């Protein structure tokens, strides 16, 4: 199997993370980085002498024989970069969300995609959430009834500066930032959403929402709720939690653990209380930079390219999250129940 040549656009936290992973895996090789910041570019050239460093991403795409392009830039840059990469038939991985809004997603999806695609909703690859996905798919605890979910972090407790707080560049506030992860997992667990009713509130950030509360109706009259805030004290790291009620028990899942109350014995789930930890549910990885889910995500993309398979969260799947986010924003603005409109 030949090594896949990888180029990365943007060397922030996620750019550095994926650069390190792809450069350390046996089946891929980091060959180029595009970064506009001159100080960062000089540092990259010094510490990565075997990697070509560009200040112009288009020049990198034209000059390098890339197999994979990884886009880790602010959201408003995703669409033009995706379209340019697609012109060169590259396999494209982009950090979440796919784009600013539904219209940009439709524009991307309406064009023929020439390579494999993946959007970085990394929690699909975390052991705890994958375990719960199996419980749902296998009906281990019987029929699904309802869910409550939340995602909190202590990030915004004063007016902040930066592109994340400019809706023309970020698409919005906590909903499209943290909330996109929660909504993606909602799709991963339960499938498509029928309708949503939501409220939002701005307290600290000024131009974007800091709090969102949403109620969902899914197929088969499954009901659920979601609370989002990046202004909750005592949450040093983002915490995404789902409480799920089934016919024969209840499940609480976070990135770190799964707690299950079961009325029945079924395989490794015993009657009564069960606790499973991330360490026991996560597959072994050849290297761990920032968490095994990121390595599993990158390995998955390499496998999909080599075996000509659709990735777990390709552009079409990831666009669903943008469609729901736009409906939530519409519900907040109009104080109304919104039907979810998927597709192009």
From TrEMBL:
It comes from the Archaea. Residues 132-251 form the GFO/IDH/MocA-like oxidoreductase domain. Residues 4-110 form the Gfo/Idh/MocA-like oxidoreductase N-terminal domain. Pfam families: GFO_IDH_MocA, GFO_IDH_MocA_C3. Gene3D superfamilies: Dihydrodipicolinate Reductase, domain 2, NAD(P)-binding Rossmann-like Domain. InterPro entries: Gfo/Idh/MocA-like_OxRdtase_N, Gfo/Idh/MocA_Oxidoreductases, GFO_IDH_MocA-like_dom, NAD(P)-bd_dom_sf. One of its GO terms (molecular function) is nucleotide binding. This is Gfo/Idh/MocA family oxidoreductase. The lineage of its organism: Archaea, Methanobacteriati, Methanobacteriota, Methanomada group, Methanobacteria.
